[in-house]
Predict the 3D structure of the following.
Amino acid sequence: MRHSPSPSASSAATVVYPWEYVAMRRRAAALSQEALAKAMSFYNEPHTYLTHIRCLETVGLRFRDVVNLSRAMPFSIDVYRQLADLPPHQHPRLCAICGWDERTDQSDHNGDLTTWSRKLPAICTRCEQAALAPAARI
Ligand SMILES: [Zn+2]
């Protein structure tokens, strides 16, 4: 399924590259590369996933085959493919901090589904809540 570019996404929006998207999603899930590899390692050794994750986060590298990281964290392979394959004006709208997109379910810090911040439209409600009360978040 292809995600449509959001009409509210500004052409001046920062371009998110596929390697940045993987790292943003991983950091939003509070996982190190090693912890993500371990969470993914049901069938294979964590080392296999760790190598793949490190490659996915290497600046300038785009991959055709990407392991389904959504098994361990909120992540969309469709978004990855669009960032890797399409020009920036066709990229989906992503939270500028965590890389969340509106078709990926993710709870915010209040236990509700994440949506776009009304005050800061470049970020999601989860990141807005973290910014407003950083001391209360882990
Ligand atoms: Zn966010």
Summary: The helical segments are 18-28, 33-40, 46-56, 77-85, 125-132.
